[in-house]
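One record is set out below.
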Amino acid sequence: MSNKQETNTGLRKELGLFHSVSIVGGIMIGSGIFYVSTYVLSRSGLSAGFAVLAWVIAGLMSLMAALCYAELGTSMPQAGGTYNYISKAYGPGIGFSMGITDFFISQSGSISALAVGFSTYFSILVPLTEWQIKAMAIAIIVALSLINMAGVKKGGNVQGIFMIAKLVPIAIIIACGFIMGKMNNPMDIVPGQGLNPLSAFALAIVAALWAYDGWSSVYIVSEELKNPKKDLPKAVTIGVLGVTLVYVLFNFALLKVLPIDEIVATEAPGTMAAEALFGRPGAVLVTVGALIAIFGSCNGCILAYPREYFAMARDKRFFKVFAKINPKTGTPVNAQIATMIVSSLLILFGTFEQLTALVAFCAWIYYTLGVSSVYVFRKKYPDMERPYKVWGYPVLPAVTILLSLVVLVTTLWEDPMNSVIGVVIPIVGYILYHVYFKKQAEKEA
């Protein structure tokens, strides 16, 4: 008999608080901090103050949603995260529609975007063609998938190492930017270039939300936490607050070092800032730091996301082969392989910005449903054990939902192409569930 604590499904409880914080912060701090500053500033109409405000609001939205999830996650510490909460609140069809969206778009797209971000940054050191960038991105996904197939603790340890390593170059840019930066960019808090404030607000926040995405991943692996009832609220609070502080300081530092027009003209503002501060060696240092950050974030996604498809299959709401656990490693190996394949295929289509915009929009549709589940659970399951109750109930969930809806509706209006895809896929998933998977579940019941 193994001395490792196992769940009744074969998943192993091997993750502590450090692993949990590393999953939250390690996934959040990925390519976004190095890439997305350009997009947020551009969508703010080159208004520096408005862009920083967008980073702050996106961080607060993420923290509020994460605290709502802490109530759900501590009550239901099971693999699957959001899928579990909205399935129990709104029915399995809604849960399946989210899972299928994650499988083909949101989560697989996140992995793809991170891998492409890694190889794109690598091309700063070693010039690569577009196809070489894509080939390297696929190789990264395959390599990290194999590491995580070897066991959740191995993947968690890799996550912890990269979480610490990625903070070093970020801290250097922040500290030296504030000390050595001499740029005096105007900090207007209204959007520039004659943009509609509401439209600019929504589009800038959606761009920033991509950089914050990942806080929910720890809930997907909550079944493998040693003490989820205590560690989940601590992990998301420490992780999201810490990341918000890092992002805001990092963007202030960029604005202290570089003029606004140079930030929006580059895809690597962090590297440009380091080069302005320290010359070519600084650019190389930050490029290596970006690679570490993106690699760690990609690893965290590959660690967490297949658990959702495993949970769906365990509930007989997805292909049952995904419910298989490798008895030697305690990992959902088939779900991991499928995630690896879909993520690799997505790399062949779309640009980094297209992937990130689509991922953020799709994710927040279901985060909004997840947050609203707090109300449903309080009414539908009044006697459910709640080791943690969300602070500020019922106001805080309501504010989170309202902000989310403003961002989603405005984005649907301003960016219809990506938004329509983000709406159509869940609808197709809902229909597919009732046409096929619901019948399969009833046969096997």
Summary: The chain has one domain: 17-444. The mean pLDDT is 87. Residues 126 and 388 are 49 Å apart (CA to CA).
